[in-house]
Amino acid sequence: MISIKGLSKVFNTKDQEVRAVDNLDATIESGEIFGVIGYSGAGKSTFIRLLNRLEDPSGGTIDIDEKQISSLSKGELRLARQEMGMIFQHFNLLWSRTVEDNIAFPLEIAGVPKEERKKRVDELVELVGLAGRGNSYPSQLSGGQKQRVGIARALANRPKVLLCDEATSALDPETTDSILDLLVDINAKLGLTIVLITHEMHVIRKICHRVAVMEAGKIVEEGDVLDVFLRPQEKVTKRFVDQVMGDPDREDSLALIKEKYPLGEVAQFHFVGERTHQALISELSRKFQVNINVLHGKITQTQKGAYGTLIVHLDGEKEEIDRALEYVKETSVEVEVAIDV
Amino acid sequence: MFEQLFPNVRVEDMITATNETLFMTFFSVLGTFIFGLLLGLLLYLTGPGGLWENKFANWITATIVNVFRAIPFIILILLLFPFTDFLVGTIRGPKAALPALIVGGAPFYARLVEIALKEVDKGVVEAAKAMGAKYRTIIFKVLLPESTPALISGLTVTAIALISYTAVAGVIGAGGLGDFAYFYGFQRNSFDVVFVCTVLIVIIVFIFQFIGDFASRKLDKR
């Protein structure tokens, strides 16, 4: 568990004092994927660099598994850092070393004997899906492959915590997804805690369990990814949610629906982390004498199931429609009828 | 044919002179590499944002480097006569040229080393820190290997400057091709000797350039 209390970082520039991280509190549970999202300048990059003290805090404490990181001496800090992996936006591989030697580097630092190093490197190359590329140089790899090397390197000393500093921001969408899948995979297989920062809500949606939204050095909103998606409180959070759920056509579409479907019932289904009733629409039409017409909507998958909204038109006997809606209410899908435009 | 074109050139003398030049070049490059690398590392590490950031140490190192780089080489040799005498026991011959060559070459190379190190990606140094590397590890396993091609091309440039310095040192009595061209060629009005010495020096320079370029290219995996 990582517990952060009153963490601050102040940069003194020539003409002003910048509070990059401002009296921040947070708790990150062991084994979870914790995402921090914010626009550039929000302080998220400084935040993650404070966790392994690439930046020294100006105030506050950081505890990782009973060890107070913020008060370690230089020597102790070096040892503590060997138990934390970090991956970077621009990979930061040594171009002068092959893939294998890059992955072996943290093992050399930790003083692992050569034989054992070789064995561990082979395992890691396999784990991140780079078998056969071990003797290549980074310049011969694609961005996604480079990040895989970065991940293998970060995992070499079997860390308990993995810090990801905008790890996918330099990658194209497809490669981003494959790297994110790898992170989920590693999180499940090795049970390590992942802290990642990003400016892409897509990344949060796809792999995080919990999310914190940062603005001006503070966490302005925090919670389970699904809750934050469903009920974003702050303006900045809403903007991030819109990145992935954004639906500019919704208003127009609702107006048209009102006009076109005066009969029957128009209802809105909110899927909130639904797992069991993913085939809800066909379930309804099988169980009840209603015709269902999907009019508008967007469903997206998160770590905790489906999330999104569908607007449907139900046609049939009034009683049958009501029974169908009652049935839906018993699932975790939220129903809203008679929608306002 | 050769004797007609170059009546004053004696092959054995040329070989001796060439050997002296090669001797001076080789050992001065070696000395310059060692001291220049140390000075360059010191400049970089004590500089702003460096691992041992220290304004005072940086200022001292930079001043030493700048002062010695500012002194014209021929004056530096004269200035170092007492030092050379103390160190080598004589002020004549190829050995006696080495202290001046190294003192002249090292600060020059130090600046090139500093530039080479500044080119190393800061992110890589940061990654090594995040892995818990000691400063020593960062220097020997990150900074130096990552800057190797630039260190070598810098050394090539320095070596070629040193070859021309050996010719200057020759005039003060260090021996070598410069010495030979001046005393046996120029002063005796035998321009064929000057010409042959020139050709030999140019060939040596070309060889150094070729080796340097080749090594630098071979080691660059970017």
From TrEMBL, chain A:
<dbReference type="Pfam" id="PF09383">
    <property type="entry name" value="NIL"/>
</dbReference>
<dbReference type="GO" id="GO:0005524">
    <property type="term" value="F:ATP binding"/>
</dbReference>
<dbReference type="InterPro" id="IPR041701">
    <property type="entry name" value="MetN_ABC"/>
</dbReference>
<keyword id="KW-1003">Cell membrane</keyword>
<keyword id="KW-1278">Translocase</keyword>
<dbReference type="Pfam" id="PF00005">
    <property type="entry name" value="ABC_tran"/>
</dbReference>
<feature type="domain" description="ABC transporter">
    <location>
        <begin position="2"/>
        <end position="241"/>
    </location>
</feature>
<keyword id="KW-0813">Transport</keyword>
<dbReference type="InterPro" id="IPR017871">
    <property type="entry name" value="ABC_transporter-like_CS"/>
</dbReference>
<keyword id="KW-0029">Amino-acid transport</keyword>
<dbReference type="InterPro" id="IPR003439">
    <property type="entry name" value="ABC_transporter-like_ATP-bd"/>
</dbReference>
<dbReference type="InterPro" id="IPR027417">
    <property type="entry name" value="P-loop_NTPase"/>
</dbReference>
<protein>
    <submittedName>
        <fullName>D-methionine transport system ATP-binding protein</fullName>
    </submittedName>
</protein>
<keyword id="KW-0067">ATP-binding</keyword>
<dbReference type="InterPro" id="IPR045865">
    <property type="entry name" value="ACT-like_dom_sf"/>
</dbReference>
<dbReference type="GO" id="GO:0005886">
    <property type="term" value="C:plasma membrane"/>
</dbReference>
<comment type="similarity">
    <text>Belongs to the ABC transporter superfamily.</text>
</comment>
<keyword id="KW-0472">Membrane</keyword>
<keyword id="KW-0547">Nucleotide-binding</keyword>
<dbReference type="GO" id="GO:0006865">
    <property type="term" value="P:amino acid transport"/>
</dbReference>
<dbReference type="GO" id="GO:0016887">
    <property type="term" value="F:ATP hydrolysis activity"/>
</dbReference>
<dbReference type="InterPro" id="IPR050086">
    <property type="entry name" value="MetN_ABC_transporter-like"/>
</dbReference>
From TrEMBL, chain B:
<feature type="transmembrane region" description="Helical">
    <location>
        <begin position="56"/>
        <end position="81"/>
    </location>
</feature>
<dbReference type="GO" id="GO:0048473">
    <property type="term" value="P:D-methionine transmembrane transport"/>
</dbReference>
<comment type="similarity">
    <text>Belongs to the binding-protein-dependent transport system permease family. CysTW subfamily.</text>
</comment>
<keyword id="KW-0812">Transmembrane</keyword>
<dbReference type="InterPro" id="IPR035906">
    <property type="entry name" value="MetI-like_sf"/>
</dbReference>
<keyword id="KW-0813">Transport</keyword>
<keyword id="KW-0472">Membrane</keyword>
<feature type="domain" description="ABC transmembrane type-1">
    <location>
        <begin position="18"/>
        <end position="212"/>
    </location>
</feature>
<keyword id="KW-1133">Transmembrane helix</keyword>
<dbReference type="Pfam" id="PF00528">
    <property type="entry name" value="BPD_transp_1"/>
</dbReference>
<dbReference type="InterPro" id="IPR000515">
    <property type="entry name" value="MetI-like"/>
</dbReference>
<keyword id="KW-1003">Cell membrane</keyword>
<feature type="transmembrane region" description="Helical">
    <location>
        <begin position="21"/>
        <end position="44"/>
    </location>
</feature>
<protein>
    <submittedName>
        <fullName>D-methionine transport system permease protein</fullName>
    </submittedName>
</protein>
<dbReference type="InterPro" id="IPR051322">
    <property type="entry name" value="AA_ABC_Transporter_Permease"/>
</dbReference>
<feature type="transmembrane region" description="Helical">
    <location>
        <begin position="193"/>
        <end position="212"/>
    </location>
</feature>
<dbReference type="GO" id="GO:0005886">
    <property type="term" value="C:plasma membrane"/>
</dbReference>
